[in-house]
Every structure is written in structure tokens, then in C-alpha cells.
Model the fold of this input.
Amino acid sequence: MTDRLAALLGHFAVSARTFQAGALCGINVIDGKAPYGQLHLIRKGTVEVRHGRGAALRITQPSLLFYPRPMARRFITDREHGADFVCAHVSFEGGAANPIVAALPPCVCMPLSQLHGSEPVLELLFAEANAQHCGRQAMLDRLFEVVLIQILRKLMEEGQMKTGMLAGLAHPHLRRALVAMHERPEKDWTLEELAGVAGMSRSVFARCFRETVGDTPGSYLQRWRIGLAQKALLQKRSLKLIAQDVGYGSEAALSRAFRMRVGQSPREWLKAHAA
Done:
């Protein structure tokens, strides 16, 4: 089977930085202003989670809470005994341009028992969190990154995402076309070629892609290319080389597509991002 995450994670890496290991007692507020997401592993204890004025989540078994993007919330636990948390900041390379971030819901909550195959990783992660071995921080950070990939696998493979990129990657035929675009963004893909890669007729492919991914194949390819261009701009690469790498024949062609998608020229966007 084609590796559906290889090109995504190859272009847009994900990293974790552990910041909490131990009990959280009483009320703990996260304002959601930090420029990164967070992953909370709740090993034991009861936690009530509130997002604004919406209905509260009540967690009574070992679970995870994954916030791909900043989001304000409150954790309410027993004042005396609290709940046992291990937490990490999560950064997606490319920021808002990262297609994985855009494809995920604001919050993912699931019991740890549903993250099949993760038991050895979680056991090692919790043991490392409770110890003070050399290299503890680096070990915890890498283990959190493994857990993140396992979460993405579960969301994709079990069809929990109904629309969007991850839903397309879960589709037995559309996944082939998406992976092809991810791996070769510089190719001048036609609708017929993508339909052929997917093993579908042109009309069925176009309709199925739009219904599942929520976009046309052409618009999705442009969004993927512009996301790659934004990442390359942040790396201080020249516009001429970026245009070649992402499938535009010239700087002018890239600038037109960039302005159409982002509302700014590449240089205007980079200046605003730096500011």
C-alpha cells in the first residue's frame, strides 16, 4: 500500500516539546494565544474540559486530547488529587499553510484504548515521564511525535474524517491521486491523468473528489503548491527556484497564483509574516 503520510510529513514536519508531567489540580486555564497546538495525555483521574460556553467534555478513563491549533480551554479536576497529565506543545512546519493542520478538527478526544498498537509507546512514554534519566526531554519529545503519527493514522484509516484531505487519503481510490500530487507537485497534472492514477473515470473521479475532499482536484493542487511555496519562502529560498519546484513556469506565474490563493504577493506575504 502507498504510504499516504510520507510526502506530507516529508514536506511538513511535525515536532513536539514536552512541558508537563504530573498532576494538575483544581482549575487550570489555557488561553489559546500561543502559536502552537498541544497534545495532552491523561493517564488517570477525572477531568472536565470546557471550551468557551459549549458543552463540557467529561473524561473518566485514560484518554488523549489533541489540539492541532491554538484553542482556549479550562481543565477542571479534583482540587486535592487532581489528574495525571503528560503534555506537549505541538508545532507543524509551515504553520497555517500546513495541510495537515487545515484538515484536522479543532479538538480530538479519544480513550487511549482506542489508539490501537500504541500500548508499548505509551507505556514507555509514561515510564520516561516519571523518571529522571539522561536524555529524558529528547526521549519524551520523540515519543510524543510517534503518538501524533498514530493519531493521524487512526483518523485516516478508520474513516473518522468525513470530508477534507484526510478523508480523501482514507478513500481506496482517491488516495492514489492525492499521493501523486503530494509527491510530484511540479508535474502539470491533468484531470484525466489524475483520474487514471485513481483508477476511475474522469467524471466519477471529479465528482467523488469534490464530495470527499471538499475541493476540485485543480484547486487542491494549487493549494498544495502554494503551501509548499509559503514554506520555501520562510526558508529564504529564491522565488525563481520555488516556482520551478512547485510547478509554475515563472516567478510571474507563481505570483499570480499566490495572490489568487492568499490575497497577497509572495513578497507582501513574507513581509507581513515577518512583522
Q: What stands out?
A: The chain has two domains: 6-157, 171-274. DSSP finds twelve helices and nine strands in the chain. Residues 136-157 form the longest helix (22 residues). The chain has a mean pLDDT of 92.
